[in-house]
Design goal:
79% helix, 514 residues, 2 domains, mainly alpha, globular, 21 helices
Length: 514
Amino acid sequence: MADPAPSILARTARGAFWVVGWRLATRLLGLVNTLILVRLLGPEDFGLIALATTFAIALDICLAIGVEEQIIRAPSPSRALYDTGFTLNLLRGLLVGALVALAAAPAAEFFGDARLEPVLLALAVSAAISGLASIGVADFRRNLQFEREFALYIYPRFASIVVAIGMAFLVRSHWALVAGIFVNRLGILGMGYAMHPWRPRLTLSAWRELAGISAWSWLLNLAITAKDRSESLVIGRLMGTTPVGHYAVGAELATLPTTELIDPICRACMPGFAASRRGEGASPAEDYLRIMALLALLTLPAGLGISAVAGPVVALGFGQAWLEAVPVVAVLGLAGILTSFGNVSAAMLNAHARLATLVAIVVAAGVLRLGLLLVLVPAMGLPGAAIAVGLALLAEHVALLLRGLGLVGLGLAPLLARLWRPAAAAALMALLLWQAGLGWAPPPGAAGQAVAPLLAAMALGAGGYLAALSLFWAVSGRPAGAERDLFGLLWRLLGRLPLLRRLPVLRQATEASR
């Protein structure tokens, strides 16, 4: 008998695997690209392109209108919806390109570098080209075919690196980096039409279906951009540029579980929740609870662990000159514990087109963050900045969690019933690290002195967490829940191997993730 269709949870988990894989592959390719190009180009070349692309990307994000998300949400998207979405994206690309081109000369004059103008003009053309991309590839996310989306982006990325390195050998200038950007854009454009049969038609016949959603998407992107830039502006204005660097490094390290795990998984969750809403899964509430509990198994110990070992990690990874970033890592690591719940809830709200709710929460969180920064930074310096951002993050993600639970008709009790075991195991892990003197200890005096305590903390933390989690699950009678889902999904991946597929234990275990 044929296997039943995979559940929304299993399809979302498989999609998350591909999205996380894309993230890691991009990081690795980017690292290889950088290591080679830094030997061929100078810092001034990288600085010039970084300045130009930062401006262009920020403008592109601020003008994003979210038509692909509406196609993902729609129960039965019409041909007119695809065509209207393409037309709007094309107009947006042309608008971004025009604005970047108009800003090229003033920006070059403002920064005192004449080379910036032609680079921005080239990026303006690139932005206009991006508006021609196939809207049909939104079906890959809609149908949870993330392996196809992986292929769509990874091959152009690889080609762009090859071209950038080849051009760098030939011209030894920043134009090698510009060439790589163009190849990546053109590669995505060409592969989109090669991988999907949809072909463009210019029309705005379905504009009413997109108008309200697009306006809220634009407001949401604008609010997120303003909120996320507030701490750098306040710290830079009140303390100078050097503390901004310390804060940026600390914040990046503390949010690694969010940027490298939660965000990619939530990208897969949004279309999964949309499919569940269309009646393709067990129920939106059940899928929501299972994904939240599954993420908690990973993110609770990760957030606590990064916070606990902030001192040796910063000392070993960045050196003594960066020790001022330690309190930033410690505070934001703790605050990040709730981000998985808030981000999954945001994906649920997005799947149900509750964008006005998201905008309201983000704006309120941004105002709270700015107010706390203005009070705590003058009084406490960088630790005050971290506390301000941490408190604002907690408030934001609690609000998102409550709205997400309300949307699917749940209270806190069903969620807590699923989370108590990983939460208790993570708390026990933190207690073990604290009692052993390995958690939240003062940073070591030299990088070499950080290795031993860091390795000991990792071993004690991971071993203590897994032992406590296994014990709590066994005492509870090994009920259905996050632990069984995780083990089932792992067995499903192993079961794809031909030599293991025939084992009865694997066939039984895979049913746990359906």
